[in-house]
C-alpha cells in the first residue's frame, strides 16, 4: 500500500506523515492572508481539517495532484473565514449610531462610543488615569481627539464636531498619544 492509501484507510501515522509533506501550503497561505484572532495553531488545525476533507474526496482520475487539490480546498476554507469576518464587521456597523445623531440627542456633553464597541475596562482605567495625571499638558483639542478616536470615531467625524480640519485633528491625536506614552513610560 502507498502512503496515500494507508492514510485513507485510517492509518494516523501515514496521515500525519502525508500532512507534513503538504504543511508548507498552510504556511504559504498564512503569509498571504490575515485572519483575525488566528494564531499558528489555528492555521494548522484548519489545515488538518481541510487536508482530511481533501484526502477523503480526492480522486486521482481527475488529473490533479493531491497538493494542488488540498491547496485549493484550504484556500477556499480561509476565504470562507474571511467572508464570515467581513459579514460580522458589516453587522456590527449596522448597530452603530451616527455621531451627528448622538450629538443632536445629547448636546455638547456627548458620551463618545456608547453605541460602539468599548475598550476593555482596564484599558479605559489606564487611559483615564493618564489623562487625569496629565492635567494641563493636553490641549482641549488633543484631549477630544484622543478620547473620541480611541472609542472608535474617525478623524473626519471628530473634525466636524470640533469644527477643525481632519488633518489638524489627526495631528492633535498624535501629539496627545505621544504625550500619554511618554507619561506612561515615566
From TrEMBL:
UniProt GO molecular function: DNA-binding transcription factor activity
GO BP: DNA-templated transcription initiation
Entry-linked Gene3D superfamilies: 1.10.1740.10
Pfam families from the UniProt entry: Sigma70_r2
Domain RNA polymerase sigma-70 region per the UniProt entry, residue ranges: 18-86
InterPro entries membership: RNA_pol_sigma-70_dom, RNA_pol_sigma70_r2, RNA_pol_sigma_r2, RNA_pol_sigma_r3/r4-like
Protein name per the record: Sigma-70 family RNA polymerase sigma factor
